Amino acid sequence: METRTKIALVTGGSRGLGKNSALKIAQKGLDVIITYKSSKEEADHVVEEIQALGRKAIAYQLDTKDIKSFDAFIKQVGDHLEENTGSRNIDYLVNNAGTALYSPITEVTEEQLDDMVDIHFKGVFFLTQKFLPFINNGGGIINVSSGLARFALPGSSVYGSMKAGVEMLTKYMAKELGARKIKANAVAPGAIETDFGGGRTRDDEHVNAIVAGNTALGRAGLPDDIGGVVAFLCTEEAGWINAQRIEVSGGMFF
């Protein structure tokens, strides 16, 4: 009997940590669905890279702030999967999509805070909720958090607070979905050299030096430091890891 290839869906998979995670998941032998907010061209390149690894891949546009669009998105994904696999289901959902906000508490606007709540909390909550009927029993949910949920740096009050909320939400997911043997874990990167937040960790030498000086391994993180951990959580070997916050920061501010 032929074993069914498992499928992971990675939001925000066109660049940065999402792209790296999608590629590392494909290297584990899974087929991958990615979403992108605006850059179809970047997403298509990721799809091509995954296909070059011998795995199936497809990209869909999704704005995780636009919760009203989720039903149509899930139907679109389900129609594609049913046609190509005979099932509308996926095995792993990686909630990675997000944006940065660097602003002191005194300057944060209500609109900025509402946007961050919609993207980083409501979006994660409701996309997961709506996908639950289509996640196979025994599958998993990986929520991308941040070291900023553990330590505080000026200007990240809203972002860090949203990620702290997602970490607690992850525990509730693990508790409530345990009967279906669905695992839920949070991966919390430290500061990573990507274009996230305007690329400040990667491109600002002063910021990069501060990060390196406060990290036990002596440098800022790279996407390759993170994607493999996310991919590991999409394997049978990680089947007994549940309700955990896994920080992947090289020992930053420990």
Overview of this structure, please?
The protein has one domain: NAD(P)-binding Rossmann-like Domain (Rossmann fold), CATH 3.40.50. Strands 3-2-1-4-5-6-7 form a seven-stranded parallel sheet, sandwiched between helices. The N and C termini lie far apart (49 Å). It has helices at residues 16-27, 40-52, 70-85, 110-131, 157-177, 200-203, 205-213, 223-232; strands at 7-10, 31-36, 57-61, 90-95, 135-144, 183-189, 245-248. It has 254 residues and is of the alpha/beta class. Helices cover 42% and strands 17% of the residues. Strand 5 (135-144), helix 5 and strand 6 form a beta-alpha-beta unit.
Task: Show the helix and strand layout.
Elements: E1 7-10, H1 16-27, E2 31-36, H2 40-52, E3 57-61, H3 70-85, E4 90-95, H4 110-131, E5 135-144, H5 157-177, E6 183-189, H6 200-203, H7 205-213, H8 223-232, E7 245-248
Parallel strand pairs: 1-2, 1-4, 2-3, 4-5, 5-6, 6-7
Helix pairs in contact: 1-2, 1-8, 4-5
